[in-house]
Amino acid sequence: MSDTKSPQVMDDSAAPVPAVDPRLLIREQGLTGYWTEFKRKVRGGELGSIPVVLGLIAIGIIFQSMTSAFLSADSLSNIGIYVAGQGIMAVGIVFVLLLGEIDLSVGSVAGVGAAIWAVLSVTNGMNDSLAVLIALAAGALIGFIHGFFFAKIGVPAFVVTLAGFLGWSGLQIWLMGEEGSINTPTGSVVDQLTNYYFEDIAAAYGLALVAVVAYLGSMLLDSRRRRTADLPSRPLSEIVLRTAVVAVLAFVAAYELNQSRGLPLALVIFLAVLVVADFVARRTSYGRQIFAVGGNAEAARRAGINVDMVRITVFVIAGILAVVGGLFIASLSGGATKSLGAGNTLMNVIAAAVIGGTSLFGGRGKIWSALLGMLVIQSIQQGLNLLGMASEIQFMITGAVLLAAVVIDSVSRRTQKSAGRT
């Protein structure tokens, strides 16, 4: 008889062992795991917000050493107000950049929106809130026109929005008429955008508390969902540490604001826009579709995504937020003018998105880039203003910072490509 052994019979009923990405296991390795993951990301070119955070720290140290007023309560409060208008516009630009496109009309759209509100409300006596809604609807229509020509006709977004920049600037000048400027009435909706403060100290501290509790709740909810799905989740110690850091930042900011004029309404609205936009981008299927289209439009189309719809709606969002930013600028400057949205507005808005970490090449970035980038720009401008520097110096420094951000982005992408991560 043969002495050969019969082959083992595989048990088909055995459940397959699910494959787990080893990088997810860092959450169970404590600080050692995170340090290893941090080094891996840096070597692979995944820098995230590290450069801009380091830049903000450097800016604070440099200007504070040159003028003690830079980190004063009044100075920080002013920065909080100045970032709001153009920061909201930058949120719209982040959405456009995630598609890998550009919108050169954002400044002129802001000007048109402010002009429509001023003509309807101030000149013709229309209800203030209704005039604001009509201006926002006009921004949505303008964005739809841009998106339609880009998505349906096939005209490059650069050309469409460049034409829009010229055309809407002309419409803005025509709407403003011979006077060229319309002052913002005291107490109006637009006037209150940047001139209203919650003076009760409970407002700033209350907002800080809400932010910390919301952050903690989202972390705990995410951890529970991952455990339910049998995925590695953040340990409780990490959640507590992260929440403590957020709490320190939030309550320090609240304390500084209360040392000045209180919590600015402008900052509250800006933060609300950031939270809503971030939720849409990261937590909804529509947001994931934006990233997919920006990463590879043809692959997204083959996956069943309505690419044209995504592109059009993104430009609609950019148009609406551009008008909101225009109303903030009108509030801050005291009225709507023929030149509102001109000058360095477009440069600052696009620069804020890019400096904050959103890639010019599409498919990568975060909504909070708008806040980080605008903080860099406004901090530089605030510091130079306190030092009495001329505006041309501000332009040169901001341009250099923008170039540095693009260089970092390009080098990062090249490093990731060589590491096989793109």
Structural features, described:
36% of the residues are buried. The protein folds into two domains: 69-197 and 285-340 and 348-418, Orthogonal Bundle (ABC transporter involved in vitamin B12 uptake, BtuC), CATH 1.10.3470; 200-260, no CATH class. Strands 1-4 form a two-stranded antiparallel sheet. The radius of gyration is 25 Å and the shape is globular. Helix content is 71%, strand content 2%. It has helices spanning 30-43, 50-66, 73-98, 106-123, 128-153, 157-176, 189-195, 201-228, 236-259, 265-283, 285-295, 297-302, 307-333, 345-355, 369-386, 391-418; strands at residues 181-183, 197-198, 263-264, 335-337. The chain is built from 16 helices and four strands. α3 packs across α14 (345-355). The protein has 422 residues and is mainly alpha-helical.
Kindly summarize this structure in a few lines.
The chain is 71% helix and 2% strand. By secondary structure, it is mostly helical. It folds into two domains: 69-197 and 285-340 and 348-418, ABC transporter involved in vitamin B12 uptake, BtuC (Orthogonal Bundle); 200-260, no CATH class.
Specify Rg, calculated over alpha carbons. 25 Å
> How many structural domains can be distinguished in the coordinates?
2
> What is the class of the largest domain in the CATH system?
Mainly Alpha
CATH topology label of the largest domain: ABC transporter involved in vitamin B12 uptake, BtuC
Biggest sheet architecture: 2 strands, antiparallel
Report the total helices.
16
Order of helices and strands: HHHHHHEHEHHEHHHHEHHH
What's the total number of strands? 4
Strand order of the largest sheet: 1-4
Structural class: mainly alpha
Task: Name the beta content range.
Answer: under 5%
Low-confidence stretches: 4-15, 17-21
Helix content: over 70%
Q: Do you know the CATH architecture of the largest domain?
A: Orthogonal Bundle
